[in-house]
Structure formats: C-alpha cells, structure tokens
Specification:
The complex is a heterodimer of chains A (245) and B (434). Chain A has 245 residues and is an alpha/beta fold. Chain A has 9 helices and 9 strands. Chain A is globular, with a radius of gyration of 18 Å. A 7-stranded parallel sheet of chain A has the order 3-2-1-4-5-6-9, sandwiched between helices. In chain A, strand 2, helix 2 and strand 3 form a beta-alpha-beta unit. With 434 residues, chain B is an alpha+beta fold. Chain B is built from 12 helices and 18 strands. In chain B, helix 8 packs antiparallel against helix 9. The chains are: A alpha/beta (245), B alpha+beta (434). At the A-B interface, helix 2 of A face strand 4 of B.
Amino acid sequence: MSKVCIIGATSAIAQAVARIYAGRRADLYLVGRDDSRLTTIADDLKIRGASSVQQFALDLTDYDRHDEMIARAWGTLGGMDVVLIAHGVLGVQDDCQKNFAEAKNVFDANFTSAASLLTLLANKFEAQKAGTIAVISSVAGDRGRKSNYVYGASKAAKTVFTDGLRGRLLPSGVNVLTIKPGFVDTPMTKDFKKGLLWASADGIAKGIVKAIDKKKDIAYLPFFWYWIMCIIKHIPERIFKKLSI
Amino acid sequence: MYQSWGRYPHVTQDTAPLFWRGDAFPDTKNKSIIPHGLGRSYGDVCLNDGNVIIPMRNLNHFISFDTKTGLLTCESGVSLAEIIKLVVPHGWFLPVTPGTKFVTVGGAIANDVHGKNHHVAGTFGNHVKSFVLLRSDGNRLICSPNENSELYSATIGGMGLTGIILQATIQLIPITNNRIAVTSVKFKCLDDFFALSERFEKDAAYTVSWIDCMAKGKSLGRGHFMAGNHAGDEAGTVLTVPPDKGIPIPIDFPEFVLNNLSIKLFNTAYYHRQQVREKSFLADFNSFFYPLDSVLDWNRVYGKRGLLQYQCLVPYEDTSVIRSILQTISDSGQGSFLAVMKIMGNIPSPGIISFSGPGITLALDFPVTSNVLALFKKLDTIVRSAGGRLYSAKDSCMTAEDFKVFYPDWERLVKYIDPRFSSSFWRRVTGEAE
C-alpha cells in the first residue's frame, strides 16, 4: 500500500497516473485549483480501487498556503511514498513577448510555485529518509527555441532545480525524478496539429509510474525523445539560431 | 483526426472538445455541432462536414458503482471496455453489448446498439435507467422513463441530435465467472439456419451466425451458428479480465489485398474450419463477444478507400425476403469478409426511431467500390418492399426518401432535436444536404 500525493491533479497526465495508483489500492491526496473537478476525479479513483482519496483545492500560485496544504497532506497520508508535481501552463509565446506580465504568469505557474513546494517537500522527505519526489518538466527545457522560449525557460529552471535537489537528497535515500515528456495529446495542447511524435496521456503515465518504481533520475517520455533531444542539444548555436523550430 | 469507422465519407470539420461534465455548452458561433465518442459508427452519424464535432472522450470518469445491486453511473465518454474492466471482477457484466467494446456509453445510447442477446434483452437503451442531457440553452436535464420521458425516448437512438449526454446510469447483469458456454453448429443452408434458431432461441442468452455470403445454389446461406450463455459455477469463479493485447495495423493495406478471390478463399476456409457439425466449449468473453477487437484498426485492411457496412432488418415470417437478399449478394459476386445474421426479438426499445425490432438482421462489410454501391441499390429495393430498414449507425448511403420510409416516426424526433445540433447523416437523410 502506498501513499501518493499528486499536485496539479486535474491535468490529464496526473489523472492517468492517479488511476494507475488507484488500481494498486493506494491512498491518494489530490491537490488542484478546481474543487468540483477534484471531486469528479476523487469519486472515479475510489471506484477504480483507491483505498482512500482526499482532496485540497488550491491555486498553486497562492504561495502563502503551500505550507498549510503540505502539512495537511503529509498529516492525512501519514508521510508520503511518492509526490508528483504535475501542474503547469503552456502560455502563449506571442503574448509573453508583448507583455512581461504574461511571461511572469508562466514562470510563476511552472517554476516559482514548484520551487516553493519543493523547498517544503524536500525538508519533509529529507527527515523521512525515504520516498520519491517526481516532477514533470519538459523536453522544451533542454534548449531554448524561438517559438516557445518562455515556457522553455520555466521548464529549464525546473529541470536544473530538480537536478540539484537530487544530489542534495541522495544521502537521505530520497529519489528525485525529473520527467521530460515530449508532445502529449491533452487539453493543454488542444490547439496543436497532432502528428506521429504525439503520445497519449495514458502512455506517458505508464512511463512515469515505471520510472518512479525503478527509482530513475531522469525520464524522457516516450524514450525516443532522449535521442531527439540528444541531436537537438548538439546542433551548433550558429546553425540552431537560424532554425524555425 | 476524427473519422468514422468506415473512413467514408471524408469530411472537413472543426472540433470543440468537452473536458469536464461541468463545462458550459460549447460556443461554436453559428456552426452546428454533433457529439463524437470513439468514432466506431461506420458512416456519418458521428460526422459534421463543414461544422463542428464535440469529442467526448475526456468525460471518462466513473461516478458511482453499487457492487451489490450492479447499478453503475458514469460519464458518457467512458468506453464499454473500461466498464468491463471495472465491473467483471465484481461479478457484473454489460446487459447488452455490441460486437466491439471500443464504443462509449454516449454512443451506445445515441445509436441504441444491440447485441447477440437482443432476442431476450432488447437494446442497450432498455437498460439505461437515466441520463443527464446538456441542451444548448444551458439546461442540464435528468431524463428517465419518469422524468422528461419524451426526451429520454428521443435521445435513445436519437443519433446525438437531442443534446449532449453527460452521464448515464445503467443496470448491469450478474455473472459468476468470465466464461461463456458456447455451442457452435455448422449449417449447410438457410433452412438449417432457421431450424437452429428455433432450437436455440429459447434457451440461449446469446445467438449469432456467421454466413458465407459467397456460397451459391444449395449452399446459399451456409455458415456457423453460435449460441452462448454465461457459464455457471461449473466453470469456476474466475472473474479476471484478460489484458487487451490488440494487434495494431500500422498502415493502410493496398487495395488489391481484399479482392473477390481472397474474400472467397477466406469464406470457404472459414466455413470448413470447424470439422465436426456441432461442438460445445467454454470461451472467454473477449473471444465470444469481441473477436475483432483483437485486431486494432482492422478497418485499415480496407485501404484508403474505406469500407461500407450494410446492415438491414427485414421480417422473417416470409423467409423469401432474406433468401432473395442473400441471392442478390451471391449473384453480384461482391464478397464480404464478415457477414453476420441474427434473429432479433420483440422487446420494444424505449427509443422513438431505434433500428432494432422483430425480424432478421444481416450485416455485411464491403470495400467502397462502384460495384458495391450498385449492389446496395438493389438490396435497398428488396428491403424497402419488404417493409424493412437500414441501421443508421452503419450507414453512409441511405437516401432521404428511403430514410423516411424506413423510419416513418422520424418526424416525431424532430421536435426534440436541439436547434444547435446537426450531423452529416441528418442533413443527408432529411434532404438538407442537396
């Protein structure tokens, strides 16, 4: 029986992960902005086999309440085996270029809020000396592209933060997993044209749970994104800067 | 890309998915909408050329499940496969299931699907206790035989035109294990089929026949008759759900693969596959109900041109009708891989214009070719003069004149259609498409 906390629980990938843990009879704690959506998900997870499901409605840019939420989740579950940080926004690159306030929203939603949560969670896990902190970052954080560098920068910060945290928590026996999905067909990407490289939320969720089970450090999902990003990272900047990707 | 299962006709349409059942009614400006589930209807009931479809698969949450009474409430985008996976381990099964489990609950209601137990259980709609319908005026209406009962009847078999089904409550049936006790009988001709139906219909919960539609002369209408019942305690109490390991078909087959010779060879081999005349065995529910689901995307075998299904219902007191249909198909030389025949029962559906009813139904798959379209015209004539009808969920060819003859009650449906709703199918069969 495992104790799993999912932050950003209404996202498509997070829901699919929660269903896998529900099938394993886990105790689940869901955090998300919309209380009625959380209830929809909680009812579903209980029917699918979860031992217990609790929920906490919170706008994750409300930093002042992070402490309260994590204390509640930690107390309710009685410690955590796994926490998954899955919240985030895509933002609109054009709007971000015109107005820094838009870009700041993306940074807050994707990085600053995660950094605040991770600071609190890291201390709890460090004292617990066990468990996995899994964070959904993105392949977009591996290299800045002109088409979405604001989103990319927020994810790059998340990747670097979790990479550093992994080293810090290693002596405590806590695993930190950085998840880097490629294109995923979810409500967040509803306006994109889908092609061969697109994966389903269910497929990504299976990959996430497998990576958590195997205590991996970094997971590109699906795996082939490791090779795609390997190539992209090695294109010389004088060429890369001219590419329309 | 959202298509129908036959991948014909080809349409250009926008999408406006619903993400949560609490979402507001989608704003699509002046364009009409039609909900779209898993796209397993064959023709154009789930398509809306030049307009908008509402993909519903995000509404895939269970809402309540009483493991003691078998009453299940779920969102309309939940698939029958997902329901089976949940309920079988608790000793429950779908009250009615079509030949694929990859359909949504919303689609099963909108097309009022039937299965191998129609003669004893009626249609899917017969087991829907209630549902919630979102109308374009923003109202969320609970519909049941007692509440908004007319809208309930209009929506069952209403092809998605009466509003967006958000959730539904279904009464499941109890089972003791995951096996079906099957008797399979090879029959030599149509008369044998009728004799077998007579023998099995009373005691078998499920009956269906596969027909070799290329056989001629004395062998006309030969095939295999399958009768099944949920196995009892003697087959153990194993209630596991076998994992879905479908074989994907990653490409469209070239069109020469399916030709009259290959189809004839397949039909002949399939007919002779069973050596003995009659045998009984236990089958798991997947192989009994969903043999084709083991090949994902099997529609790609028909190539880019797509496939057409012809499913009709005709009276069978006069056996000359079905005989002349089979004769016409056999004479045309247009073979079908999968010809399925079943005697339907007389349990009335709650739906206003449901396909199902007493009679004999025959379903055949064909590649889209001009010869096949010509054959359909001939078959339509027989069906029409016999007082039969075609199944809207499978259809891409029915004319407006025929639709109005096949479904004389169609005008009763009209007043319940939501003003914002339409579909390629509806414009075609009401003559608005011209």
